Amino acid sequence: MSDTKFIDLIKSKYTDVVLDSHNFRGDQTVTVKKDCGNEFFKFLRDEPELDFNFLMDITAVDYMTKKNERFEVVYHFYSQKHNDRLRVKIPVSIDDCIAETITQLWKTANWYEREIWDMYGIKFRNHPDLKRILMYEEFKGHPLRKDYPINKRQPLIGPLN
Prior knowledge:
This protein is an alpha/beta fold. It has a single domain, classed as Beta Polymerase, domain 2 (2-Layer Sandwich). It has helices at residues 5-13, 38-46, 109-120; strands at residues 18-24, 27-32, 54-62, 71-79, 84-92, 98-100, 123-125. The protein is globular, with a radius of gyration of 17 Å.
């Protein structure tokens, strides 16, 4: 098999969804359209030649002005069967700051997606319980956005005494 075996298989099945791909030092990465849908992720999990059964992490990146789309949601998968990893990136614009949840496929996505909502303000459509997980409910804004004012005063949780 080639060094891009997973990329090649994904591209053969989802040619119209893959925007970009690369293999760097054995880490295969695909960038896909935001509306790729849960069928794409189900394919990553259930296709025997892929078998990415373990969702290691989901995070986000704020590029602010460096890219056309301000954010990327980044998924890290691991295949126990193949002992290999795959990174999937989805560009998300500031104007339509929402992605589809994958909690139906990987239960661990629940916490990761809530963290991304809390820190970056990216919503996840059809998430079962999208609410803050690290900051308190009254917190205003999303502190990992690059334009978040670091000296911003926040409402207090309770009395100071």
